Amino acid sequence: MYLPSLFLFSLLVLTPISTALVQDFCVADLSLSNTPSGYPCKKASHVTEKDFVYHGLAAAGNTTNIISAAVTPAFDAQFPGVNGLGVSIARLDLAPGGVIPLHTHPAASEILVVIQGSICAGFISSFDNVIYFKTLFKGDVMVFPQGLLHFQINSGKTPALGFASFGGQNPGLQITDFALFANDFPTELVAKTTFLDVAQIKKLKGVLGGKN
Predict the structure, then answer these.
(1) Which family does this protein fall into (predicted)?
(2) Are 84 and 25 in contact (CB under 8 A)?
């Protein structure tokens, strides 16, 4: 009685639980609505090799904007083949002086590799708000833990290019500046919760299209 019980215990406790997919892939059916766990799967009979290839990162993004930068995503909505696989990628183009403002990805960690130019990048930990930042050059890689505020700035005098890979098919995005100043968040509440001057808040709302 003792040995079989011990054997059963070892199987239950010591055997690793597999997290592998129960099927090879789940190509996103973009005709259906997205869900918290991803898009529903396209019928296997409708899947082609085109679902696993994406050409959208070949061209540079338009950096003629307020941040002088562009992010071109290849998430599940653009690249159906990554649906359900827990991976995705994006292209970062930064003109001289360009910046990807403080932002978070609530659903995935990120790895950035610099392809061209130099990028000052960093993140803020949730423990004592310690800042970790470094100027990265061609071939350098930096990781940004899931959910933490981070940024990228073109620290050189020429255009910079990087590719960011994510541990999720749709990492999510919230840009702090836009969350505060690009909507109808009442100015008095922004001032109360950020300690910013009302005049400065109204100026930023005017720049980013928010309402006072």
Answers:
(1) Belongs to the germin family.
(2) yes
Secondary structure (3-state) at 112: strand
Summarize the annotated binding site for Mn(2+) as residue ranges.
Answer: 103, 105, 110, 150
Query: pTM of the entire structure?
Result: 0.86
Question: What are the backbone dihedrals phi and psi of residue 194, each rounded to the nearest 5 degrees, phi first?
Answer: -120, -15
The binding site for oxalate consists of 105, 110
User: Would the CA dihedral through 21, 58, 113, 105 be positive or negative?
Assistant: negative
Which residues are paired to 151 by β-bridges?
122
User: Which DSSP letter does residue 129 get?
Assistant: T
Q: How far apart are alpha carbons 182 and 100 in whole angstroms?
A: 16
Domain boundaries, the chain: 44-172, 178-208
**Which residue numbers belong to the known binding site?**
103, 105, 110, 150
Helix, strand, coil fractions of the chain, as percent rounded to 5 = 25, 25, 50
Model confidence pLDDT, tens digit, residues 145-203: 999 999 999 999 999 999 999 999 999 999 999 999 999 999 999 999 999 999 999 99
- DSSP summary character for residue 78: T
